[in-house]
Amino acid sequence: MIVTLNWLKEFVDLPITVTDNNSVIDLVEVFNSLGLVVEKYSYYGVGIDSILICKVLNIAPIKDADKIRLATVELAEQKPAEQKPAEQKTVEVVCGAWNFNIGDFVPYAPIGSALPNGLEIKERKMRGQVSCGMLCSATEIGLFSDQNGLMLLDVTDQDIGRSIVEVLNITPDIIFNIETEGNRPDALSVIGIARDLAAKYRIPFKDNLPLDGELTVENLNETLSSKANFDEISVVIEDPDMCKAFGMVEISNVKVGPSNFLIQQRLLASNMRPLNNVVDISNYLMLERGQPSHPYNMDLINDRMIRVRIASEGETIETLDSKSRLLGKQVPGISSDTGDLVISDGRNAIGIAGIMGGSSTEIDDKTENIVLEVANFNPIAIARTSKRLGLSSEASKRFERGVDPLGIDASIVRYVRLLEKNSSSDICVKSSGILRSTAFEKVKVMLRPKRIKEILGIELTCKEVKDLIEPLGFKVKLDVSETNSTERVDIDNVSADILDVEIPSFRPDSEREIDIIEEIARVYGYETIPKVFVRPPEIGYNFDLNKLIKQIKYFMVSQNFYECWTPTFLPIGIQEKVNIFGKEIRLSRPLAKEEAVLRMSLAPGLAKVAEHNDKRKFTNINLFEVGHVFKDYKEETPPVELVKLGAISYKNQNSLENVVEAIYGIVNMLKLKDVEIVNSWEYNPDSQTEFDSTYDFEPELQNHTWMPFSLSRFTSEELLNTSKTFKSGTAAYILSSGKPLGLFGQLSNKYDDVFGISTEACGYFELDLLELLNADRKIIRVSNSKYPDTEFDLAFIVDSSVNALTLKDEIESVLEGYISYVWLFDVYRGVPLASNEKSLAFKIRASNPSSTLSEEEISNLRNKIIQEVSVSLDARLR
Amino acid sequence: MEQSEKTINPMDLIKKIEVALNDSLETISKCVSINELNSLTVMTVGKKSQLIELRSQLKNVEVSARKEIGKVLTDALEKVEETFKLKQSELNLIAEQNYDRNDLTEFWAKLDNTYKVKTGGLHPVTEAQWDLEEIFISMGFSVTDGPEVETDWYNFEALNIPKDHPARGMWDTFYLESGVPETVLMRTHTSPVQIRVMKCYSPPIYTVMPGRCFRRDTPDARHLATFHQIEGLVVDKGITFAHLAGTIEKFTTSYFGPNIHARLRPAYFPFTEPSAEFEITCTVCSGVGCRTCSMTGWIELGGCGMVDPEVFFAVGINPEEWSGFAFGFGIDRLVQMKYSLNDMRDLIENDLRLLRQF
Q1: Is A592 on the interface with B (CB under 8 A)?
Q2: Does the pLDDT value for residue B50 go beyond 90?
Q3: Which pLDDT score is estimated for A789?
Q4: What is the ipTM of this complex?
Q5: Looking at chain A from residue 695 to 734, which residues have their Cβ under 8 Å from any Cβ of chain B?
Q6: Closest Cβ–Cβ partner in B147, B169, B306 for A709
Q7: A95, A284, A491, A781: which has the fewest C-beta neighbours closer than 10 Å?
Q8: Based on the domain organization, do B223 and B85 belong to the same domain?
Q9: Contact A182 B170 (CB under 8 A)
Q10: Which of B118, B133, B143, B235 to mutate to test the interface with A (most CBs of A within 10 A)?
């Protein structure tokens, strides 16, 4: 919203002057403190006293120049009054603009003058041509124009050589660009902003038209009816819910022409193009009072009647922007309870109510008789139609927020007065009036002063409350039931438990006690409310999953992995291409087709990042992400969310081993119990214990779990599915106490094609963090031996399908009762072993907690191990 | 030795001792290597040193002076020996250093290979999020989380943003394809977690909720369609706007430093009343005014306000009994400010050349 200081001063006598910089800075702060944020402000009509009006006499090309021309302009030599009359004087000016012709009047900055931006005008030579001064565009002299190039002025020969400030009656001003909040319809008007300022500065607000005095508009009657016949036009409101009030004025003997310079400048400052007096004043009125209105060419209204009705399905109208609009259509997601409201004549729609007029009744140069519509439409209906049509206008923006239902009469009066001044003819107001289909009811709200203290933390007397919000238009009275007598009690001197507050009609955003408290706070000043630090009664906690995530992220970093943040959305179909199966969860209107479905795994995102960095010639690419993935979307209820840790290791010396090391580290860090690694080719889901398919946090909320939603865990079927995104021969499950935590291995060959990475050089794992969180932890009992360890090696030849950990477990089971450490230190395949065989060499270190191991004991242990594994795994000593 | 020397003038001998002493000391001090010093052992402190030679002349001095001269000579010998040892250890140290000189910066420089990454790192958004969590936990707030996909009710309706409400335009929303359009959506803020917390737990509630949010905005240098937010919620008896202002101030000075302050100015959000935007002292210019803050000295950080009674009604909390406040702001924006990141979109590219720098 654009407002200017002078425009505001028409309503409130602000103690601000353009030249007093401190007062301006103060005003900006006041704006901000009211929630009317000043995005920027600029000076207008300042520093242009030396700019003169000149007339273009000749335009000539300059040799060797194709961008600039030489203009000869006429100026009158300024002489003191007692001397001879002004003499004609011409100067030659080099000019780069092309929008002007001989005979045009343009602004001229003489040599020695300065432009508002500080540019000093000096005699300059361009392409050998001396330029005496400068012809100016509107921007260069801080004014507004809808033209590119020089500012063309609507003046006469008598004005030649005179100051532009004097001729156009330019008053120095400041233009504020105010960001207004979505709930304040009144802030979209000069009058509304002025009212806020008046309250804050504690100076009276005065309207710029005295409503109590004589109205120039006669017969401005209000009738509670849906129908009325005016002198020329009859009006029917067919749907009273959609249009609560319809004001109208018929004006004849209008002479369409330009509106005055000030109106044009203010419209241009607000990014509206001046067209003619009839239209400009309607727009000006909207900016000033927040009331949209629409002028129709009365003579083009068929059957001399106006109907406010719902458009029928398939009806079309050509709007003022020359576009044909289809009305009454259904759009998904927008309720069709309210149809598209139109203003129609006896035959066709002549305007989309509250949004844009139709071109059939457009005002043109020849229009003599007009009808001005000043109505009040249903905000929700206007918002829906605007959304359906994808058509938003300055008018619809205001109607959507709610226009003052009691502001119609003042707007009509203001329109007529402005038109009187801006029409070269004597306009004739034929008839006018307001139809009210529904009577306006004042809104009254109960306000408890103690509630102010409870919400704002400040104590105010009734009088203070009154003084704060009455300037905004609220009326504060003692509750009738409280006074309990007919005698008048002076509110200034009492304290009351309840106050009655009447909401002004222009503040539909205020309808509850709390809204009034906000208004009190706003005028009182948020910055004036003391800052009190609140002390929570309990200590603060992080929730368990978050603590785990923190632990794991730090660990991954220590393993030289970099944390990434990959998109939640993936391209359509890409997951199926890399064997991530499951019903695709699609966005209904994605921004781009590359980000259109929800991820079911972190693998595609990380593979893409690996490729990105590979392309940038990185090696040792180790990346991880902790993020939500989604599954099981049944529509209407949100999909199930899982929190995963995904990690990719790419182009390291041994990337696959890297990821195994990382998982090994996590498992040990968390001290998970009974960890098993099962190769995917060994995995038989039937043999695994069934696990719960979902895990719901909500029912068992503990004091400080602080996770008010459910997350899910794997099902065995899903687990099998997930394994398919890995190479079937190079993937393994990790389980703890029989429950799967996730998978690791090499990604399927499909990633080579889809993401352009080499999966041979890549290791990947994905763990379910909720499973990790809930997995059983080892109960740690520390024990150590005082006696030295004995170490010996055993290498076994086994079938190549034997799981190394299984063999290790077998060995360990023999060593029960000893403090033992068993680890694999060598794997061998090849001659002289058979092709289906491998050799696994273990180092075994053991000690007896109570004595030194004897040679005999060691020998017994060796033999026992050899015998056990030979029976259980058909392993033979190498 | 000649007999005539028996009558050596004691003073002459003392002078000779002095000369010999200075000579020996000079010889030692001129040595630059341990080998050189060792080769001079005999000449300086050994049997052939000048001082030892002078000792043989002692018998030619009259007896009464012998004792005194003998002491001078012994002192000189001691002095030379001491100097020799000192020099020896000094030169030994130099020699040792010369033998085993390794340039350890070579190892360091090798690690600086940008393309062969030997370290890992947290994403800057994670770091910022944890810093924030830590501050709020220390202030007595707990951390909560919720799902990223939400229903219309949690994300909008319960927050006093009914369908058709003009304020819906404040959040461009990604909806999921579904039977009934616009029922399931990507959360546009972490506020639905507030609703979940209030539905699950009874007051008093002091919590913050960081998380990933989504808005259907075309990404630009300052906005991403996917971003991270942290919100806070307090519900207790007697909570006022003054507490809100105090909490924001406390957080601001804790996170940004004691010279950075917060101020509130009126704003509009459907779920709070009164509502406010909060600004902090510009961290670039410390409030003096610069380009970052458009010369105002303040930068906008987030929104806040007193929980609207409608929101309390939606979750079944009695607004006459309890009151509360909520606040929220973007974590990515903080990161952008902290690292002077020109383009927010760089954050989601995950280029290791960038990630390494944080």
Answers
A1: no
A2: no
A3: 86
A4: 0.86
A5: 698, 701, 704, 706-709
A6: B147
A7: A781
A8: no
A9: yes
A10: B143
Mean pLDDT for A334-348 is 87
With CA atoms as reference, the chain B residue closest to A510 would be B273
pLDDT band at A218 (very low <50, low <70, confident <90, very high): low
Residue B321, domain extent: 124-146+202-355
State the pLDDT confidence band at A700, using cuts at 50, 70 and 90: very low
Q: Are residues B350 and B260 in the same domain?
A: yes
In-domain check, residue B253: yes
* Residue B188 domain-assigned (yes or no): no
B142–A contact, CB cutoff 8 A: yes
Q: Decide: A748 and A732 in contact? Cβ < 8 Å.
A: no
- Count CA within 13 A, CB hemisphere, residue B300: 14
Residues B281 and B132 in one domain: yes
Residues B241 and B326 in one domain: yes
Residues from chain B contacting residue A32 (CB–CB below 8 Å): 265
Sign, Cα dihedral of A302, A307, A312, A314: positive
Contact A98, A59 (CB under 8 A): no
Helix pair angle (A513-524, A462-469), 10° resolution: 80
CB contact under 8 A, A588 and B178: yes
Asked if the structure places residue B151 within a domain, the reply is no
Say yes or no to pLDDT of B1 above 50.
Answer: no
Confidence (pLDDT) at A840: 94
Q: Are A389 and A351 in contact (CB under 8 A)?
A: no
Does position B205 have pLDDT exceeding 50, yes or no? yes
Q: Is B121 on the interface with A (CB under 8 A)?
A: yes
The mean-pLDDT minimum among A82-96, A495-509, A527-541 falls in A82-96
Average pLDDT over residues B62-66: 82
In this prediction, residue A386 has a pLDDT band, given cuts at 50, 70 and 90, of very high
- Give chain B's domain count: 2
Same domain, residue pair B216 and B349: yes
Kindly determine whether residue A529 and residue B241, on different chains, have CB atoms separated by under 8 Å.
yes
Q: Is the pLDDT of residue A9 over 70?
A: yes
CA atoms of B166 and B157, how far apart (whole Å): 13
Q: Which residue has the higher pLDDT, A364 or B100?
A: A364
> Would you call B249 and A587 a contact, using CB atoms and an 8 Å cutoff?
no
Same domain, B67 and B213: no
Closest CA to A321 of A391, A399, A395, A400: A391
CATH number at residue B296: 3.30.930.10
- Give me the half-sphere count of Cα atoms (radius 13 Å) on the Cβ side of residue A701: 15
How many whole angstroms separate alpha carbon A159 and alpha carbon B164? 55
Residue B53 sits in the same domain as residue B16: yes
Question: What is the four-CA torsion angle of B244, B246, B247, B253, rounded to 10 degrees?
Answer: 140
* pLDDT band per the 50, 70, 90 thresholds, residue B121: very high
Task: Look at A541 and B137 and tell me if their CB atoms are within 8 Å.
Answer: yes
Q: Please give the mean pLDDT across all residues of chain A.
A: 88
Window B:234-263, CB contacts with A under 8 Å: 234, 236, 238-243, 245-247, 249-250, 263
B2 pLDDT tier (thresholds 50, 70, 90): very low
Q: Which of A518, A526, A566 sits opposite B273 (nearest CB)?
A: A518
Question: Is B234 among the domain residues?
Answer: yes
CA-nearest residue to A641 within chain B is B147
User: What per-residue confidence (pLDDT) applies to A550?
Assistant: 95
Q: Helices A655-670 and A544-558 sit at what angle, rounded to 10 degrees?
A: 140
Closest alpha carbon to A247 in A506, A505, A437, A432: A432
Residue A704 has pLDDT above 70, yes or no: no
- For A705, phi and psi rounded to 5 degrees? -70, -35
Min distance B228 CA to chain A CA atoms (Å): 11
Chain A residues within an 8 Å CB radius of B166? 182, 379, 383, 400-401
Where do the domains of chain A lie, and which CATH numbers do they carry? 2-45+174-201 (3.30.56.10), 52-170 (2.40.50.140), 221-436 (3.50.40.10), 443-528 (3.30.56.10), 544-774 (3.30.930.10), 790-877 (3.30.70.380)
Interchain proximity B218–A704, CB inside 8 Å: no
Q: Does one domain contain both B132 and B250?
A: yes
Q: Using the beta-carbon criterion (under 8 Å), do A591 and B225 form an inter-chain contact?
A: yes
